[in-house]
Each structure stands twice: as C-alpha cells, then as structure tokens.
Design brief:
The complex is a heterodimer of chains A (448) and B (342). Chain A is an alpha/beta fold and 448 residues long. Chain A folds into 2 domains: 212 residues, Response regulator (Rossmann fold); 134 residues, 3-Layer(aba) Sandwich (Rossmann fold). Chain A is 39% helix and 18% strand. In chain A, α3 runs parallel beside α12, α6 packs across α7 and α9 packs parallel to α10. The longest helix of chain A is centred in the first third of the chain and has 22 residues. Chain A is elongated and about 110 Å long. Chain B has one domain. Chain B has 15 helices and 4 strands. In chain B, β1 and β2 form a beta hairpin. In chain B, α1 packs antiparallel against α11. The longest helix of chain B is centred in the first third of the chain and has 31 residues. Chain B is globular, with a radius of gyration of 22 Å. At the A-B interface, α8, α9, α10 and α11 of A face α1, β4 and α12 of B.
Chain lengths: 448, 342
C-alpha cells in the first residue's frame, strides 16, 4: 500500500502549493489593512482625527480663530470633557461624551489663508498626511467650494464652515459636502418682509457689490426679493474686492435718486464701505421725501465691531446670535463664554454645530464611511442646536432652519452687544425648491 | 457738474494720501538711493499709533456688579475709562480728540522707528543692488505687519473723528447748487488740508533751511557734498526718519476714513510706487503732482458713466496712465536725468 497513489508531477505540486499557500494566507488576507479598509483613512486605533481647515492668517484670521475655539470646544465635549455644551440640548442622544464610535476624537488644523489654493493644499495635507477622516471650516464661499470639490475627489466628508453663497449647495454642490450655514437666497427671503414693514414698498435701491461669487449671489437674491415687493433697483455697481476707499463708489449714490443703499460686502469691505457711507451723510439724507436707509444683508458680530457705531439702526441677516434665549444657544454661550471669556460669533456657532452633527451622524451610522455618514445626515431633522427645528435636506445637503433678521443696536451695553434680533424668520418662509439653484450632487465617494 | 465736483473732491483727498506716502518714498530714494518697500508699513504703523493712543486713553477701571451676570454666568463688569474718571471733562475731550492728539505720540514714535530702521537695517544695503533692497524692505514690511496682527488682531479697529467734524458739509448749497447735492465729509476736508500743510512744511524745510539745502545738494551730488567735509550720511538718516514721520502722520489722520488693520499699508504701497514712478524717480514735486493726478483720475474712472463705456476701467486706470506716461516720458512727469539709469 502506498500513500502516494499517483506519481508526483509538476501539475500536482503546483496545485498543492497553491492550495497550501491560500490556506496559510487566509488569515492575513482578511486582516490586511489594504483589503479591510473600506473607505479612506478608516481609523484603526483608539482615535479618530478631524481636520479643521480655518483661516489662521490673512484678513479673516480673527473669524478663523473663533472657529478654531469652537472646534476645540466641540472636541472637548465629544470626549466627555467640560460641561457638554449643546450635547445636553441636542435632540439626538446618540453621543454620550465617549468619543465617536468608541474612538476618542483628535484633531489637526490647517490654514486656509482665505485663498482657494492654500485651503486645498492644507486640506490635502490633512487628508493624506494626517489621516483626517473629515474636513470642516472656512470663512469664504470661494474657499468652501474649492475644498468641497477636493473632498469629493479625495473621498472624505466636508462640513462647510461660514459660506453664504448659493453656489455652495447650488450649482457647485457635491455629495460629500454639507452646509449648516444659511445662504443668500434665505437672507433675501428673510429680510424682504422686514424691510417692507420698516421702509414700505415704494423704494429705489442702489447696490454696491463685491465683485466675486458671493457678492453676485447676494446681489441677485436681494434684488429678486426687493423687486418682488415693489422696490426699484436704480443701479448695481460692482466694486473690486479690498477696494479700501469706497468714496468714489459712494458719491454717485448721492444724486442717483436712490433712497436705499444695499451693501453686498462682507468683512473688511463691509466695514470700510459702511463707515464711509455714513461719513458721507447718507443716513442723514432725505430723498424722494423719505429717510435714506442703508442695508447690510449679511452681518457678523466681528464685522459690526469693526464698523463701530456706524451699524446703529442698520438691518441685516445673520445665521445665529449669542443673545438668543433658546436652551441650545444658552448652553453654547455659557460653555464658550466660560472657556474663553467672551461670547461666540456666528462663525463659531456654525462650526461647533457642524462638528457635533458630523460626530452624531457617524455615531448613528456606526461607521465613519463617508457614504454611511452622508446617508445618516441626509434628511436628518434635529433641534436644540440654537436655530429651532432644523432639516438637513437630502436633495442638496443644505440645512433649513429659522433665519435671524438683526439690526445694529442703538445703545449697546458692551463691545459684544452690537446687534439686536428683530425677527426670527420661520424656516418655512426661507425654504425653496431643491432644484432652483441648479447643480448635481452626484454620488458619495468613499475614497477607495 | 455736481458729480464732477464730487469726484474731484474724492480724488483730491485720495491723492493727498498717495502724495504723502509717495513724498516719503521719493525722499528716501532721492537721498539714500534705497527702494523702500517697507514704506507702506510705516503708514500702517502711524495709523496704529492712533489706535494705541486711543487704547491707552481707554484703559478702564473695572468694577463688578454683584447683582448682574453675563450671558455665560460670570459677574458683570462695569468699565469706565480712567481718564474720564480722574480728568472729568478734559478726559472726555481727550477721548473725543484722540485721533488728532495722537499726532503728538506718532511724531516721536515714527522718528524713532525711522532712525532704528535706517541705522539697524537699511544702511547695510546702500551699496547692494536694488533687488536686495526691495527684498529686505519687503521682508521687513511683512514682519511689521505680522507684529501688528499679533498685538491688535486681524480685524479693522474703528477710530472716530472728533464730534465737531464727524458729519458732512453741504458744499453744494454754498456753491449755489440745490441743498444736499454736493455733500462732503468734514474729516476728508480736514485730511486734505492736513496733507497740503505737511507737504508744504516738507518743501519749506528743504527749501529754506540750511539742513534742507545740504540735503538737496546731497540728492544732486552726494560725492561732492561728502568731499566738502559734510557728514551727509547723518543728514540722510534724519531724512529717513522725517520720511517715516510723514508716512506715519498720513496714517494717523487716515484712521477715521479707513478703519486701520494690519494690511492697510500694503494696500497703499503698490499705488504709491506707481505714483513715484509716474512723478519721476527722485522728484519731490513730481511725486506730489502724480499723487493728486492719479487720485483724481481713479475717482473719475469709477463714475458709472465711464464704467458703462469702459467696464473695469476703475481697476486699471492708474496702471494704464503709468504705462502711457512712461512711454511718452520715460523718466516720469518731472524725473531727472541719471536717476536709476546706468
């Protein structure tokens, strides 16, 4: 009797070798990082890394610093440190202060410099070198659109920071990108009824508009809503970004027949143009038998501080304000104020909320896979984050919530108390059809 | 007509700022032969002298209101500036007039800054190529910017003109136009007058003093003045400090027009260099004339009527005029032969 029934030949040796190799290799095939990683930067250790991409230098450095403070606070709360902030008021109770999906949250930061190229480079570095599972932050629509596009190509989720242009969740929307901040369409819809009540329907408006994507978007929305209520647009003049002295653009307003000046400017441009418009006595003028008025459609507290007393009595809109008295806002202001000694800006608020929303979505999905997190965010309805009942609309990844109309305060009690909320515009009033702003979301990209 | 008058006024006050910065640039180039890219930063430092002075006056006495708390739960602080507490009406007056009064702080500070810059850095680059001078002064400007940003933050810090000159004057009514047709801020008129006074003072100093005569001789022929036994270098150091003061004062008085931030110097620097080139390298009257000329042209190019025919002309007019002038008069409007020519 022989155990070898057939003589060994080359074919049988090759067959036996292949079978043996496969048997030996089986465990490593299933445990190998390459084969087991089902999405880019899948965390394997005890930590998961978030990437905070904010302007740390350049004109929006102060706003970026406030965003970073908010992110650091969010990380503390996610990891169970501090008083928990808005985790205590958030309607979703998936997060328990034990990190996310059992992993402690760590973070890396990048400097956008408020330049698209620099922002993309820092986001790329955080994704490729630091292994960031997601990217969030920013203070400009141009930057947000550029980084959102990069995150879509790379295969990570992008939670936009302060970006107000319609295009971010309109013609430039991407499946991997999500925006909590409101947009110019919502500003127009919220402001128009308040302006109608305050200034009537027979007005002639003159627009000064920053000559870039956000300015055009803002001008278009405000024109649309004010013309719908009967206002006439006398002129819409584009001004170069960072013009500094706007006097040559303001003086033609004096004799244009306009009785309202709309400043579609943000940041330093808004501070300068508003200051100079007030210096030229526009607010003391009577035109067409009416008091001349100035409107700043997008306000921020940091800008209001720059413009000083010139903001008094001027209407605008904002995403959130620290004086709100709902439980979520109070919890956040308390937490932020005790940590840093002053109230948070709207940029800080939206960034904090975005970090928490991402973490919550990942926790509910039980995974950091972009498609799983994205699907968890799509159509998600929540409360307790400072803006009333809020919906992350699945069709365009835009948050829909109440919008605040604010006015420069006549008698501020401190350097932070510059704006007063005159109206909380209900969410239903600022909603619009998902296909109105164009663009295609496409599919989620998981990066592998 | 009213629109033309308004744009003319706009151009004059803008031109005043350009002329003041360009005057200092030209003084430095004409005397030391240095292309000073940090000159815009000196304008910015002057503006922050006004900010610093205002913040010093605003140092506050903090009292705690035990019955009230902030929105984040800490006791409410009641803040009152010390100058108002201890100096009463005079303290209030000081706060109101902090911008013009801060000139008293800006003059010694800018003299010192100019002196330290020239002795500590610039003098080591006198005999180096212009490219080296540009690189080192540009680097210095960035360093100064970053220091200011670290100390004061990136946001603009508003400064207000004194209450009495805060509104706008109805110039049109005085000239026979309908009321309210030509209004112009009082402070811009103050700035225009101030710019004219400083420019006049610098010219008078150079024209009617022995020191000025020596400096002008040095600008014309440095070697010969040296051979006469005059320490021209020391005088040129003083000229550098004077140029720093001129830029600084321009910055101080500009703060109510443009809330200062760390980047404001760079915004003016490029335009001021164009002014110097158009006026003629090393020509003081040329710098002043070109400053006002380009300021006025920039204002007229921004008129809606002009932009309707030539869209975007307001953003390129200065460079377009510079190209045309350099093609027609390669040495600029009032440039001298031999300056920056091999």
């Amino acid at each position: 009797m022989s155990f070898i029934r057939k003589p060994l030949n080359r074919r049988s040796i090759l067959r036996a070798g292949a079978m043996g190799g496969a048997a030996l290799a089986t465990p490593t095939i299933f445990t190998s990082k390459v084969w087991s990683q089902t999405y880019l930067n899948e965390p394997t250790g005890a930590e998961v890394t978030f990437g905070f991409n904010v302007p740390q230098t350049g004109a929006y450095a102060d706003e970026g610093a406030d965003e970073l403070r908010a992110y650091q606070l969010a990380v503390k709360h996610l990891n169970g440190e501090g008083d928990g902030g808005m985790l205590n008021t958030f309607s979703s109770k998936a997060l328990t202060g034990q990190g996310v999906n059992g992993k402690k949250v760590a973070f890396v930061t990048g400097d956008t410099q408020t330049k698209s190229d620099a922002a993309r480079a820092s986001a790329k570095r955080m994704i490729e070198k630091d292994g960031a599972i997601m990217i969030t932050g920013g203070s400009s629509s141009g930057v947000a659109i550029a980084v959102q596009s990069l995150c879509q190509e790379a295969g990570v989720i992008f939670m936009a920071g302060l970006t107000h242009s319609n295009d971010t969740t309109g013609k430039d929307k991407r499946a991997n990108g999500f925006r909590h901040f409101f947009n110019t369409e919502m500003s127009g819809a919220a402001l128009a009824p308040v302006l109608k009540n305050a200034y009537g329907t027979d007005r002639k408006a003159y627009h000064l508009t920053a000559d870039y994507t956000w300015g055009w978007s803002q001008e278009g929305s405000i024109k649309k809503y004010t013309e719908d209520m009967g206002w006439e647009t006398v002129a819409a003049v584009r001004t170069p970004l960072g013009a500094g002295d706007f006097s040559q653009y303001i003086t033609p307003v004096l004799n244009s027949g306009a009785d309202v000046l709309v400043l579609n400017h943000y940041g330093k441009d808004m501070v300068n143009s508003l200051t100079q418009a007030v210096q030229f006595g526009l607010r003391d003028k009577q035109v067409n038998g009416k008091q001349f008025e100035i409107i700043v459609p997008l306000y921020s507290r940091l800008m209001a501080q720059g413009a000083g007393e010139n903001v008094k009595g001027i209407f605008g809109s904002t995403n959130w304000h620290w004086s709100l008295q709902d439980e979520g806002s109070k919890a956040f202001v308390k937490s932020f104020g005790q940590e840093y000694g002053f109230p948070p800006s709207q940029a800080a608020h939206t960034c904090y909320v975005q970090a928490i929303l991402y973490a919550d979505a990942a926790q509910r999905a039980g995974s950091f896979m972009p498609s799983a997190v994205g699907e968890s965010l799509e159509g998600f309805e929540f409360e307790g984050m400072g803006n009333g009942p809020t919906l992350y609309r699945a069709a365009d990844h835009q948050c829909f919530k109440d919008v605040l109309v604010v006015k420069g305060k006549e008698n501020p009690s401190s350097q932070f108390d510059l704006l007063e909320v005159v109206e909380v515009t209900p969410r239903a009033q600022v909603e619009y059809p998902a296909d109105m702003l164009g663009g295609e979301l496409g599919n989620f990209n998981n990066g592998v | 007509m009213d629109v033309i008058l308004l744009q003319l006024l706009n151009g004059l006050d803008k031109g005043g700022a350009y002329a003041l910065i360009a005057l200092g640039l030209t003084l430095i180039f004409g005397t030391l032969g240095v292309v000073n890219f940090a000159h815009g930063a000196l304008f910015m430092l002057g503006a922050f002298c006004a900010v610093s002075f205002h913040e010093i006056l605003n140092i506050e006495m903090v009292a705690i209101d035990p019955e009230k708390t902030t929105a984040w739960g800490t006791p409410l602080e009641i803040r009152t500036p010390y100058v108002e507490t201890y100096l009463g009406d005079f303290g209030h007056w000081m706060l109101n007039y902090s911008v013009p009064v801060s000139i008293l702080l800006a003059i010694p500070v800018m003299l010192l800054v100019g002196f330290v810059m020239e002795r500590g850095l610039i003098k080591h680059f006198y005999n180096r190529p212009h490219a080296d001078q540009i690189l080192v002064t540009f680097g210095l400007a960035i360093v100064l910017q970053e220091i200011i940003k670290t100390v004061f933050g990136a946001n603009p810090i508003p400064q207000t003109a004194p209450q009495t000159v805060r509104g706008a004057a109805d110039i049109g009514a005085a000239l026979g136009f309908d009321p309210g047709v030509i209004v112009y801020p009082y402070w811009r008129m103050v700035y225009l007058g101030f710019a004219a006074a400083v420019i006049g003072a610098v010219f008078a100093f150079l024209k009617f003093t022995t020191f000025g005569m020596v400096v002008r001789a040095g600008m014309a022929d440095r070697d010969t003045v040296g051979l006469l036994g005059i320490n021209i270098e020391r005088r040129f150091t003083i000229v550098f400090a004077i140029a720093a003061v001129v830029a600084g004062l321009a910055g101080v008085m500009y703060t109510p027009i443009l809330p200062p931030d760390y980047h404001m110097g760079m915004d003016f620097l490029v335009l001021s260099f164009v002014v110097v080139v158009v006026g003629g390298m090393g020509s003081l009257p040329g710098a002043v004339a070109a400053g006002f000329l380009l300021g006025i042209l920039q204002s007229f190019a921004s008129m809606n009527e002009v932009k309707a025919i030539l869209p975007g002309i307001d953003q390129i007019i200065i460079y377009l005029v510079a190209v045309v002038i350099l093609l027609v008069r390669p040495r600029g409007l009032l440039g001298r032969k031999g300056v920056m020519e091999s």
